[in-house]
Amino acid sequence: MNNNDWRQRLYVMVFQADTPAGRRFDTTLLLIILCSLVVVILDSIDSIHRDYANLLAYIEWGFTFVFAVEYGLRLYCSPKPLRYAFSFYGLVDLLAIVPGILAIYYSDAQYLLIIRIIRMLRIFRVLKLAPYLSQANYLLSALRGSKQKIIVFLVSVSTLVTVFGTLMYVVEGPENGFTSIPVSIYWAIVTLTTVGFGDIVPKTPFGQIISAMVMITGYSIIAVPTGIFTAELANAMRGEQLKHPCPTCKKERHEPSAAFCSRCGNALFTKNA
Amino acid sequence: MNNNDWRQRLYVMVFQADTPAGRRFDTTLLLIILCSLVVVILDSIDSIHRDYANLLAYIEWGFTFVFAVEYGLRLYCSPKPLRYAFSFYGLVDLLAIVPGILAIYYSDAQYLLIIRIIRMLRIFRVLKLAPYLSQANYLLSALRGSKQKIIVFLVSVSTLVTVFGTLMYVVEGPENGFTSIPVSIYWAIVTLTTVGFGDIVPKTPFGQIISAMVMITGYSIIAVPTGIFTAELANAMRGEQLKHPCPTCKKERHEPSAAFCSRCGNALFTKNA
Amino acid sequence: MNNNDWRQRLYVMVFQADTPAGRRFDTTLLLIILCSLVVVILDSIDSIHRDYANLLAYIEWGFTFVFAVEYGLRLYCSPKPLRYAFSFYGLVDLLAIVPGILAIYYSDAQYLLIIRIIRMLRIFRVLKLAPYLSQANYLLSALRGSKQKIIVFLVSVSTLVTVFGTLMYVVEGPENGFTSIPVSIYWAIVTLTTVGFGDIVPKTPFGQIISAMVMITGYSIIAVPTGIFTAELANAMRGEQLKHPCPTCKKERHEPSAAFCSRCGNALFTKNA
Amino acid sequence: MNNNDWRQRLYVMVFQADTPAGRRFDTTLLLIILCSLVVVILDSIDSIHRDYANLLAYIEWGFTFVFAVEYGLRLYCSPKPLRYAFSFYGLVDLLAIVPGILAIYYSDAQYLLIIRIIRMLRIFRVLKLAPYLSQANYLLSALRGSKQKIIVFLVSVSTLVTVFGTLMYVVEGPENGFTSIPVSIYWAIVTLTTVGFGDIVPKTPFGQIISAMVMITGYSIIAVPTGIFTAELANAMRGEQLKHPCPTCKKERHEPSAAFCSRCGNALFTKNA
């Protein structure tokens, strides 16, 4: 086995997931990313940071080293290293290492956390290899089919919250917590989506009447995204037409229970004598 | 090109959206309205108002001037100016200018804000020209199809919140925040729609039992608007089939491009002899 | 026109809604009941009660008088007065008067309010006459069709909130607001139904993990009542089979697009030669 | 009637629910378990515990005795006692007794409560005998059919709350209540599921913008579990048709009582010659 052959096999293991080795590699990588995320999350807890800051930093450096080695391997075995390096995943892979190396010189960990979270995207990358992805594609295609309807819905909701927010700002005013129109719009979103934090609440009777309208609106129009998605999904699940070429005109697809070709009018199936 | 011809072309650009110029005009107008709204919204923020009140006022005057010119153009190029002036959109266009002019003499901006928000309606008017509107019509027809069911639903919900509100007023009473029946009805709406601000909460055990009933009711009957809308939408999406009763067997729906009935095999349309 | 004939016509007007007079009578009655309810609701507002208590009391006495006259009319014109008096609606009609008369002697209005709310039921009775009721029947039949599924769902939810409530009582304990198991179950209902008042919130990390589980459960299982109702409603809306008796065996209902009788195998429609 | 015969009849009554006696036994047992749970719940209320602690303890001992006798009966009449004792239900039955007996020696009732709640599982076991279970199976099969989609959905939600939680921790920081990433993730779950306790709320403008995005996301993606479940349930309800491919044209679904294919008119089942 020469060097090129080894590189080829490494490429299959690192970049593809059709072989057992490739699957094992990806699963291991997913686990390491998850561990790395858990360490970042734990480090944000004050009591843990006080006691184990150094230990967690060492572990995080370890993960950075592992990711750096992995990045090197990918560059080495890829047939077109530059193309990989400037692809989306290549950049994400690089961004998973850089903050860890920077953290050695600047301990300003706070802002590096945001960059490190991009590693999360790798979960999707690893999942692509899992049997679940056909289902995800299924859901995404249902979402894509209703993209336009969703945009109309979001525009309507944006208009609603702006109108209701401004109305509440005028009715309730800064003395009741509605300090500005943006804050009132934020309140309208909190109310329309039925979240209802309760940090800002209407106090005047008229404000409470408007609030009731916002709530009932929000409670009712949740039917819209649900309805769109359900109808689209049911459509996708049903959409199996009869695939039986008409013996006369060869039209291939027909209504599920068609007996005669809807194009030429001849029987699709011969009747037993 | 004479004056009348120019007016005709202006009319097409200003009032219609089938030409590239008309589309560009409407898009620009939409952007200006959005900017004008952003200025109103920004002006409501206390810290910005303190520092930039004058600047924002000048910008708003600029927008008022632009809208006034646009209103004049519409009056000028419309074949029936009076009919436009008293149409819904004509009045909205006028209302978009008046507060800006009034604001020069009276700086009582607070109350003018409500009138200015009516400009938002223009977003829908501009969207009518966008390809999204067929989708909006689609959603609206689904909503119209279930209008009666929605009225029955809203009457039931109104009855429910009145009964539960009164019950809570009697059970909890003013000492626990349920100061009057209207406030208790407001609380019932907040709870039934699962918003749950938490500004008014039941404190007695019996009040908490009634609250639990309200919540479970609200959690369950959200199925009603969702179910209505989904069933109506699924119906509308299925309804894209050819609606032409077969002259022989009366089967009503066929594939969009069917020439023969898929049930009895007879021609759907008679040939001209 | 003799006395009996007059009584007969009064009966038709008061008890039925097929004639214009009957419809007008019921609409007027609905309006009076609504006004009476509004008076009760207004009287509960402290500032109004202080200033207009006497006026509102007089108005309420007027309504009581009107309802008493109406009750007398119903007794007079009913062919079987006793049967009416002891029917559900007869008792509700009586209960709409009694508290008003009692209020003359005892001004303990607080507790009478609950009884007066029963008048609300008359809204449904009046609505029965409106064209909306076929829609209400439609919704109710969809709900009845899924009664068993709803019971299973409610039992599961009850079990869930009991288990989660007890768990939270043990984990968080009285020091964090979870003062007893019933209060913790109330909290679990507030959380599972996504209401989230915020009067009781988990404070320990383990309590927050359980809360997150309760929330995600509640967020997900809302699909169950929605799914049940939607599927049932879609079924009810679709359920239009082909009503065309088979010319050979007379089987009356077939699949919507059947070409041959599924019982005897003969063609349902003759083909044009 | 000999001893073995009596044991056999006892077995049928205790373990099966097809006979009237078996059904009565199971219903009684369910009621006793419910009473036992009510006693545990009541005992957790401070004011009741202070006054009736002894009485409730005696009652609970009584229930423990009843369950012990029942456990003995089950062991006695079971044809394979060891197999029962180590089955899931056998262990649950034992766990329903042990804490009660332990409570006599150690009054540390607090921790025993968790174990006692396992008795709740018996509700499902008893319900298995009720006519409702076919419905529960129905719902469960709909859930099982969409298991993969639900996993994809839960993974996406987990990723979303981690990303949004970390973002909010960085944006808002410990001074605004977002004390650590786990707490911020907890807040993201509270917000995404539209529960909205309000114990932690965003205070910076940027934090409120991110919150608005979380809320609108949560408000929209509730469509996903609902859509999945509804489509799956509608599929299951439609699926009550006869699934028998027509031997001639292969049409797969027919009316439940069809004898001939409704598409090609050929017999669905061959006659024995």
Topology:
The structure is a homotetramer of 273-residue chains.
Chain A: H1 3-15, H2 20-43, H3 46-77, H4 81-85, H5 88-95, H6 98-105, H7 109-116, H8 121-127, H9 133-145, H10 147-172, H11 181-192, H12 205-221, H13 223-238, E1 242-243, E2 253-254
Antiparallel strand pairs in A: 1-2
Helix pairs in contact in A: 1-2, 1-3, 2-3, 9-13, 10-11, 10-12
Transmembrane segments (chains A, B, C, D): 29-49, 55-73, 85-105, 150-171, 177-197, 209-229
Main location (chains A, B, C, D): membrane
Membrane topology (chains A, B, C, D): Multi-pass membrane protein
Brief rundown of the structure:
Chains A, B, C, D: Residues 24-236 form the Ion transport domain. Chain A has 13 helices and two strands, in the order αααααααααααααββ.
In DSSP terms (H or I, runs of 4 or more residues), the helix count of chain A works out at: 13
**Helix-strand pattern of chain A:** HHHHHHHHHHHHHEE
**What is the arithmetic mean of pLDDT of chain A?**
77
Poorly predicted runs of chain A are none
Q: Find the structural class of chain A using helix and strand composition.
A: mainly alpha
Please describe the biggest sheet of chain A, giving its number of strands, its sense, and whether it closes into a barrel: 2 strands, antiparallel
The proportion of strand residues of chain A reads: under 5%
Q: Gap between N and C termini of chain A, in Å?
A: 67 Å
Number of DSSP strand runs of chain A: 2
Largest sheet, spatial ordering of strands of chain A: 1-2
Work out the largest interface and the residue count of each chain.
C-D, 59 and 63 residues
Q: Oligomerization state of this entry?
A: homotetramer
